């Protein structure tokens, strides 16, 4: 029996959790999918670093995890700030007693516009947030991943069906989300052979979050220069005859944030020990 098979066999019961004793940075984890991923990781024994631009929400998630018997800290900040990324990595390593095992690049939002009306600010912001920031975080954390200790390490980059198939009104988002697929594969090729680091992309379809909710509900984020960026999809674009709202999804419903987070946990866990460089489509069967 090979060492890796023996390690996997030894983990089959996971009495202390799938990620027991491991350290995970999850960006954009103050709410939505990121917050659910943080809770699931903590439930499986991980020490979780909550990264979010909203300190109040991030601290609330960390507090709820700690009250439930898990281990978490919040390191709030803006992923568009290169200095913050360095701080995030240093505090994560300190919390993890000198180790980091997992990075989940989840932070982001949409700033839509058709190509002929999209501004440079829209383009640059979304590409920086969804492509450049994940690269910078992985680069900053490289010393903690390029080690030969045989421990489970992974990078999970969050993408979207927009990055796989394109989407009208999302040229900036589609390009950035397609780009992280290439980043994922490159990490897998560079850090897999010598260090055993796995890298996978999770591409979401219709998941119930503020990004897919009705735009009329008024959700927004504060973007560069303090402007409010509206989130969601106009109700008119979601209109469909009764009973056909999700006809293009074989499971006939959108996914929940918890279901989305569970796919992230799976990708980081030792259950995926021989899976790397892949794009896992979490779509309820849409676009298969």
Automatic annotation (TrEMBL):
It holds the Pfam family adh_short_C2. It is an enzyme of class 1 (oxidoreductase). GO terms for molecular function: 3-oxoacyl-[acyl-carrier-protein] reductase (NADPH) activity. The keyword Oxidoreductase applies. Keywords: NADP, Oxidoreductase. InterPro entries: KR_dom, NAD(P)-bd_dom_sf, SDR, SDR_fam. Residues 22-194 form the Ketoreductase domain. The keyword NADP applies. Its EC number is 1.1.1.100. It comes from the Eukaryota. It catalyses: a (3R)-hydroxyacyl-[ACP] + NADP(+) = a 3-oxoacyl-[ACP] + NADPH + H(+). Belongs to the short-chain dehydrogenases/reductases (SDR) family. PANTHER family: 3-OXOACYL-(ACYL-CARRIER-PROTEIN) REDUCTASE, 3-OXOACYL-[ACYL-CARRIER-PROTEIN] REDUCTASE FABG. This is 3-oxoacyl-[acyl-carrier-protein] reductase. It comes from Sodiomyces alkalinus (strain CBS 110278 / VKM F-3762 / F11). The lineage of its organism: Eukaryota, Fungi, Dikarya, Ascomycota, Pezizomycotina.
């Amino acid at each position: 029996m090979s060492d890796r098979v023996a390690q996997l066999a030894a983990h089959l019961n996971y009495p202390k959790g799938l990620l027991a004793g491991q350290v995970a940075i999850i960006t954009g984890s103050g709410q939505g999918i990121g917050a659910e991923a943080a809770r699931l990781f903590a439930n499986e024994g991980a020490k979780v670093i909550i990264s979010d631009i909203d300190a109040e929400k991030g601290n609330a998630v960390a507090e709820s995890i700690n009250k439930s018997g898990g281990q978490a800290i919040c390191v709030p900040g803006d992923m568009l700030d290169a200095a913050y990324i360095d701080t995030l990595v240093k505090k994560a390593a300190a919390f993890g007693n000198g180790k980091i095992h997992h990075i989940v690049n989840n932070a982001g939002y949409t700033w839509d516009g058709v190509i002929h009306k999209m501004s440079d600010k829209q383009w640059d912001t979304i590409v920086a947030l969804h492509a450049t920031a994940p690269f910078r975080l992985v680069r900053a954390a490289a010393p903690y991943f390029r080690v030969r200790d045989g421990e489970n390490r992974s990078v999970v980059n969050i993408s979207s069906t927009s990055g796989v198939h394109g989407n009208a009104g999302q040229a900036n988002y589609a390009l950035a989300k397609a780009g992280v697929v290439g980043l994922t594969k490159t990490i897998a090729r560079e850090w897999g052979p010598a260090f055993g680091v796995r890298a996978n992309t999770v591409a979401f379809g219709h998941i119930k979050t503020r990004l897919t909710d009705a735009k009329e509900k008024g959700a927004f984020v504060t973007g560069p220069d303090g402007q409010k960026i509206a989130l969601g999809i106009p109700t008119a674009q979601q209109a469909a005859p009764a009973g056909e709202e999700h006809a293009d999804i074989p499971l006939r419903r959108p996914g929940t944030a918890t279901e989305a987070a569970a796919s992230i946990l799976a990708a980081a866990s030792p259950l995926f020990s021989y899976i790397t460089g892949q794009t896992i489509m979490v779509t309820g069967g849409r676009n298969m």
